[in-house]
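Morning!

This is the sequence you dropped in the shared folder:
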Amino acid sequence: MAEKLKLNYGKTILIGFGFLASSVAWGIYDPYVTTILNNLLSKSELITRWGEAIVQRFPSILDFLTATGEDVGTVAGGFTLVPLFIGIIMTFDNIFGVIFQPTFGKLSDRCHSRFGKRRPFVFIGAPLSALFFILVPKMTAIPALMFCIIMFVFIMSLWRAPVVALMPDLTHPSLRSEGNAVINLMGGIGGLFAMLSADIVCTIGGFDKKTQPELYIPWVFVFGAVIMIAATVILFFFVKEPDSRLKAYADQRKSDDEEAERQAAKAAAKAEKERLKAIRLTSSERKSLIFMLVGLFFLFCGTNSIQTFFALFAAEILGKSVGQATSMMTMFVISSAIAAVPAGYLGKKIGRKNTILIGLGAFLAAFIAYLAVETITGQGMALVWVALIVGGAAGMLITVNTLPLVLEIGGIEKIGTFTGYYYTATFSAQIATPVVYGAVRMLSGTYMSLFVYCPVCFLLAAIAIFFVKHGEAIPSDILKEIADD
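The structure's back. Tokens below.
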């Protein structure tokens, strides 16, 4: 019997620092950039005029914004479309992700350097991201702020797919679910750092968190930038990626004839490009990929709506404050973190698709149970906690196994490309959900519809994933036996 492979947890944790850094950056970006934009846009006469013109032309837009929880009123009794403009700007990261991440993922597949295929993108992207990240809170003019925001989200899209592809590159296919569990755990730790960043900065700098936001907020961005730089250093010194330059090119470098060397390198690169193009998915694999991406879209439509609208649901239906709603969502996060490693183990034991479907089934059961009890008896409060705890664990069963399944369909040669496809599906959902559920909420008149919208999304995701026929890893012991034969 061939010896089974085991995940190198130490190496995987070091790889995970890249995802941790990305999670810290986005965890700081979302709440603080919203605050910065609100302060600047509210003072802009141009934005005020634009808002008045838009509302005159499309008066129903105020109803839509109110349905999504935006406060469109002003102290003077008028209205403001600042929340709309903030919402548009805050979708830039998702839009850029959809457009650019597949491109940079594909470019990383074809990158030839002594540092490997993925790390060069991190070495360039992370420090530049950190630079623009630091500049964001320092900008006092809207054009300068927009330039820094656009540059930041663009450069982040440059290295996100490559840094995520690094783990599957350096991990045996049969161990990628376990590896992805560790990566998601590192991402969760990054999210925790982001949540505590203001407290850490205020403690170190002696700032008053309530009365001195203008002093401590810039240092919160510096804190995030330092973590990005530190992660880059860790990946440079402690994560070794194989030299990805072509052997033909390496051999030709020994030649004294520089022109011959250049031509040989060009020919070798062209041959490699043609070889990659020749690697085609079968018809069945293409169908599996399409169904999986559709499933991911609906899945993230459901989970993103929970994260975006739960505080509003808690305020209207449960009578909870924003702070209480945040505390309730903490149970969702904790449950997810606890389930991360078991989710990877389960994906290895019973298969990725089966684990994903179990997670979706658990999501559906918990949410439908709450909806039924609340509708019939009006006493569903206890089941909200059950839904959040079960939902957090179920979400991790799904998240940990979806990316490895997509990458398995693509194969080892196209990990970067298929990582880009994965994020195209998930980011598209994050763009669509605020609009789609906002319309559902406006038509239904209640945030109780959240517990209808989510199960429908999860059911559609389960149906799509049911038709996925590829993406399971061949067990490592079988691969070894084949190699031995």
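Headline: The chain has two domains: 9-238, 279-484.

More detail when I'm at my desk.
O.
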